[in-house]
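Supplementary Data S3. Sequence and structure tokens for construct A.
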Amino acid sequence: MKLYVRLEYGIIVVTRLDSNLHTVIEYFILAVGLVGRGVGGGESGEVERYVSARPHPPHRLTTGQKYSTSTLAGKGKCCLSEAIYSRALTDAAAGEAAVVGKAGGGVSKTASEGAETAIRSGPFKVPPIHRHQPTSLDYAYLFSAIATTQALAQVTRHFTMPKPLNERLAEGQPPAVPVKSDAPRQYTEEQRKPLASHTPNIEQGITFAAQDSLPKLPIPELENSIAKYLAALKPLQPPREHAETQQAAEEFLKGDGPELNEKLKKYANGKTSYIEQFWYDSYLNYDNPVVLNLNPFFLLEDDPTPARNNQVTRAASLVVSALSFVRAVRREELPPDTIKGQPLCMYQYSRLFGTARIPTDHGCHIGQDPDSQHIVVLCHGQFYWFDVLDENSDHVMSEKDIAINLQTIVDDAQQTPIQEAAKSAIGVLSTENRKVWAGLREVLTRDEGSNNADCLSIVDSALFIVCLDYAAPSNAPDLCGNMLCGTSKIEKGIQIGTCTNRWYDKLQIIVCANGSAGINFEHTGVDGHTVLRFASDVYTDTILRFARTINGQAPSLWASTSPDPSKRDPKSFGPVSTTPRKLEWVMTSELSIAVRFAETRLADLIQQNEFQTLDFAAYGKNFMTSMGFSPDAFVQMAFQAAYYGLYGRSECTYEPAMTKVYLHGRTEAIRSVTPESLAFVQEFWSELEPARKVEALRRACQAHTAQTRECAKAQGCDRHLYALFSVWQRGLDEDGAEAASSNGDGYSSRGASSPDPLSSPSLSAQSDDGLPQRIRSSSSPSPSPTRLQALPSLFADHGWDRLNSTILSTSNCGNPSLRHFGFGPTSGDGFGIGYIIKDEGISICASSKHRQTKRFVDALESYLVEIRRMLRAVGGRDGSPASSRARERDRGVGEGKMKRGRPIRSEGVPKAASVDSRVGSDDDDLGGYGFFDAGMLLQALQARTGSLENTVLAAVEKAIPRRREVGKKLRLSEY
């Protein structure tokens, strides 16, 4: 092989030639990674490299295709040899890069001027490449391109795309944009013809195009946060306790508060978000099992096409649509989320696929393979895998081929005796305590390159997991339980339930034997709003693809679709393995015992939780808005009234508000219990007339709506105060703002200076009398000489404990593609309530650890019926815009005439509502069903019971090596 390097319009093009001088492949390189004072300037200076030294997959450039500046920058992965690269670094640092640079079709005196010319001239266009024998490597052009690239980085601002997790950016480095190539592979002439479903040459880069314009998450004023904190606690505390909390808050404002707030502001300088790293650490340092505690679920509606309502066809359809979504994200063709035209942050979509939660002895970290091409399938606890994408993220298998693979897997898994299946159900280990699971992963990976280590790598790096369950739950509560934690069923002393057919550290698509499907996802890096978009688009795509089988002109959800694999040159797929292979774990005695104990502990955990659903069909969003209420506030007050009716008190309630209007925004906490809500529930259960009860409801809903809007603007109190608490824990001083280990993208880098941020002040070391110690032991190591040893008064007060003890953890998230969604209770004596407000109904899934969940749901249904009666009684109108006014004519004509028969009152035909009675839904203002976070902050705060010592962490994510063909290859011909 020979290399020919030259400069084309300010970029580097490297052509590999074989012995016959035929072009093998062309590499497109933009040397974004070369920075330093010496580049193009004549000074000596250190040159650093941003891109990794290890080889990257080639990035192709289509001849004659136009590319924008940002798109070109995204393809800047270094494909040069180390020798060439070392020479470039040396000469560039010595100032030899200041040569004439060719850019934008013209030659300028300096590389910088050439770069500016290129930017002003618009999109670059790559000319045709002529094949001729090179005589030598053209270093002059190489160095010119380096200088040109440096100038480009100075003139243009680029959005920093997500890097592999735990990879730390060097100080002062310019951002890079690693974007997948949009060019198709080299096909034959027949293959090059555009397919009916393929749209070539589309404009790319829309997914993350608005990231640079998004504002940073603001840090609220300390006084405002304290005022909102006190307002949230007032209806939850007795007067004397609230007076103590007020005193503690005043001391905090006069003492530690301003100092901590200034440290937080300094820490936030240069960070994408002031809360992001603390937020990730609160999840990643959580030790308890993630099943039933952290992972939420979505239950999809049934596929409207009857032919797909069996397991294999439904699963194959969902996989194909999910892969189309993956392709759209990687090619940046996924339209960004918006609220009334305002773009939302799309960062989380880059963390949805190919990621895994990896436990260690010192907390978890998130690993990701951004170039993953395969999926893993679980069936009867057995693991299988096969490739589904090529290097360009195009499909390599049709839906029919995937269905054949899945059927092959089902048939093979069914041949495994139940005793053997139970013994090798490694997936159950992901339900263990995180430290226990970390130790077992060490056992699996003890010998690098061993079969178990390779099998684990295949699972960790998969795009997502597909779980094929043998069970076919027939009712909604059982379906919800199956999607959240699986089923526990013992046969002859052996666990044969679906609880062992899971891998909770990754995104899972679960399909039951009857075709019912759902999603269970790892919640650290993504919120429900992100996964909801994924679920909705996947569900919609399955319908549209079926429509195109009837009408080829039916629309597509995607800007471009993958070329039909059946019409492609098989050689164009590259090194892929499409035949399913079974991962055969080597079950040592230590692993076998661990699997057995993990399964029995999980079975206990499942038995301790119960799920109930309510599909309320009497009315929904249309009725609520016609009455002048925000639907979300209306339902929140229903929860308050139902709970008060059962227990005679209001408890701490949590609802998340989405803050993705800000860069890397997540959620802010809405505290649903307010003085207005407390007054409402007290009046509702009194003997007052309906009019006063309705008026109290209106005031409570208005207060909730106002608070929701404030939280959506990141003006709540919870995240700000938690950040201050985290700053105190980490002992950030004025010179050590980087003590909190952060890799720049919000994910924990598990650095050496990352103390445990999760020990709740209420759960610290116990004193002799059993009361929690509020002051750290002086013997505990301190990360900073200026660390505050005494717990600040605000966090030592009982009000802090009360507000972080959530009894009703609620979340509104869904759309017509979902039947239900939910999560486990966030405290042992609480409820977890997921709800979906539909136009003509409400879907609710409630969970608890045996706290009369069914009775609570029944009380909720009774309230919803009763409040509608009251609204009608006080003269409210509950009409729909589609109601006919002919009934007014019916009432006005023939007055005084004798009418025979009893008028039939139709509950399903509401009266017409006046325009004045309609108000805009607050849900629409905030992105519809965009709120989601299961209120896990409480569990994060209570995850540790030890002291607040520094934990020295040394886990740095390892690069995922090139996968080898692991597992026994199945023979498709047998099936």
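Construct B, processed identically:
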Amino acid sequence: RAAEALFIYLACQQKPVTREKLAELLWADRSPTQSLTNLRTILTALRRELDEHLIITHDTLAFNPESNALIDIFEFERGLKGLGFPDRSSPLTSTELETLRLTLDLYRGDFLDGFHLRDGLGFEEWSILERERLKRLARDGFRAYTHACLAGGLYAQGLTSASSWLRLDPYDEEACRAQMWLFMRTGQRTAALQTYQTLKKKLADELNVPPASATTELYRRFQTIEVPPAIHLPAYVTEFVGREEEIAEMEEKLSMPGTRLMTVTGAGGMGKTRLSVEAARLLASKRPGGFLHGIHFIPLEMSSSSDEMIARIAEGIGFSFHGSDSPNAQLLEHLREQEMLLLLDNFEQLLGEGNDALAFIVGVLRNAPAVKLLITSRERLNLYEETVFDLAGLDVPAADSSQPEDSGAAMLFLQNAQRVRRDFVLSSVTLPDVLRICQLVDGAPLAIELASAWVRHFAPAQIVSQIQSDLDFLQSPFSNAPAGHRSLRAVFERSWLLLEPQEQNAFALLSIFRGGFTPEAADALLGEPAQPLLVDLTDQSLLQRNADGRYDIHPLLKQYTFEKLSSQQEWLKNASARHTSFYLTFLTRQGDGESPQERAAIRPELDNIRLAWESAAREDRISELEQTAGTLHGFFSIQSWFEEGAALFQHILTLIETSSHANADGLRCDLLGRNARMHIQIGQLEKARSDLKQAQIYLEGMNDPSRRARVLDSLAINSYYAGDYPQATALALESLALSDSMNNADGAAFSLNFLGSCAKAAGDFAKSHEYFERAVSAYRAMKDEIGAAMVMNNLGNLSQAQGDLQAAQTYYVDASVILKAQDHAHGAATTLTNAGKLALKRGQLDQARALLEEGLSMKRHINDKRGEAVALAGLGDVAMFTDRLEEAHQHFQMALEIANRIGDIQLVLDILAAITQLNEMRGHTQLTKRLLGFLLVRPEISEESRQRLRDVQSGMDVPLDEQQDSPPDLEDELNQILQETNAHSF
């Protein structure tokens, strides 16, 4: 061993070492004379085996640098130093990354791992120091390589590196977070979460400390992310042809961290949409975990304002507005924490003066750092962050060039031609004319598709003649553009003129649809079976058939054909009337709009329904609007699309403002009541009160108990959230009596359920249980599963308040099964939150936290601000009962801010009751007494919170009179209390 140790030490020194130092290094416990004798003995043996590697003099020994030996630690250090380590901070190029990989491959374990020299104390000390020095270098290298792989999309290589990094330092949380990211990028969420759990256990068991907040926050974030990420891109029936270089360039640029906004610009019909979709698809396949919140295609051809654009984006990414803040602010806040690619298609119409769409894009760039934007537009956005990708037509080679039939333009023509004429080929006869067609349309993909559709009727030479008569569509802004480039309109006009007159009429009529249409809708519009015509128009590339069987017209063609329709006002009027009638009838067939099947039917038709409702309002078709209002209300409510519902109802109220129809006041009253219900759901209680006040004015002039009952229900809900339980109860009882008198079982069930909540809040649990049982029986008799589930959820809350936790769990489980089956996001999220609060009461703190965090995530996803505040308050309780008082304070303050902002007095008081308990635990005696004195005399506070306060009071000397005749003014006192609680921060 001493000989091996000597050779190792000399090989590592790269300089001569004195014999005395070597003797002391290897035999520290021997005399100098004996140590030098030992050294001479082992040198004799070394010379026999390794003489060419040694330089031996009378006084020193050294490793021969001229020998051909490869010393791995020298290569390892040389490689790292050549790359600037350990001080390197700049990004690595691809070449440097490969060099670093080869260098790190040399590190196969700890230096001299398992090699020991019993008598060589000095050698042992040296080897330990050298081992740690090399380990630090390796750790720096693996750290840099891991982060470079993460940034460059080399996730598999990154995972290998992260594992090596963690082996070197199992407690390094940066390495743990990097490995979690890499697992998520490769679709291994379970492994990512397990990485955290392993670290958490190791830290607890060996160091008795929790993971850092950044690591825990990453763990919680990953719990809410869908795996694999959603890829919402349109499917096409034809194969993408050509543009290989453009797609590769777009994918490369979009992969760069610095590319936040790419705008694909070009004239109409250049294939901007299709190219962008294919580039996004390639990006998704090459970097499958590159966008943890997905890639989303957002069509904007129907959007003429920033508000409509924001609604489209929210709908496309599955975000629902549910608060008093503006939709613009809500969506930007949601995107702040998202990592996604948004493909915004047809943006040019939003670039006009007075449109705030561009401001929204700037807001995304500034506030949502992990969101990339890929935009198609006929003109650039002129933003500093913009990467412009100009798109011209497909390259069209000359007929005498090498293999012109392999060009993208020729292949696109052939692909589409063979769809309408399967025996069409590119031959020596047809190829020159096909190339001429492609040249005449300047390689515009849409024009090529339209032209190629006519090979069933015309030879390519005849198509050339038709197009040559007018090239207006090729008009170019450049003074030196080739002659004959004028306008795409010529292609549309030629396609139009080649249709039979009845086909022209039908095609123009179809342009009235918005967002596509079904064959049944086309039948109703045309007044005859439309399927043969639809097939024919699709064959001619004038219609597009989607994978779900719906049809649509390319936006450019739709604009052209709608001009034809609009030129005949009587024709347009009749088409609008038929369109309106079809969709109003369609709505009446969708029941209350709440079941999964009904909502699935309504969703794709929403643009058509909005247009039909607008037309009905303008045509004074009041009775039909009355008949369908309930369906739309149910749809918007279950979808949690409260902002959209309120916007439509308000728009129709504006349109019928001057209507003198006999039922106009009734519809106004109805829409105001429904508008109020939408506002209540998103915490806009003042708007709801204003709507209900107007609705009551209309009610005074009519004898309509059904409408009166609905308005009373909304008034009752508003009073409940204001903490006025007696008023809420009185209003609900009046509504119940009206419903009973009309045998309106649905209305009666709603009132009974609400009365149960009022009784529970007032502390009359027996009465509450009676109301709930009557409500659930009524809903079951009507086979209304959602209604029954919502009551079961309330019965669970009541059982919690009564201390029957097992019964509460049974109710929540039963409700959850129904709500999930019905795809009721709002109800399912509420049940999760309630189940979390139940787990807290049962002492199951980990389960409580998990359920409340999942409920919070869902509430935030559907933008339910009240539900978000309830979940945050529950998480505050979990933190408080696990002695994480600072975390509890933060949760309570966030919940309180939301509850106060939306004006929910009952919830504000409930949260203040929890804050009272927290301050008692923190030893803030004066503030605790102040809160007790304020809260216990409030009649608006729930009985459950009142009992919580009494428990706090029992441990303190605070004699209070809870039955004051006239407690202090709530608003003034509350503002003061909120300031005081906020001031007592950590």
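The first helix runs from residue 2 to 13. Residues 470-487 have pLDDT under 50 and may be disordered.
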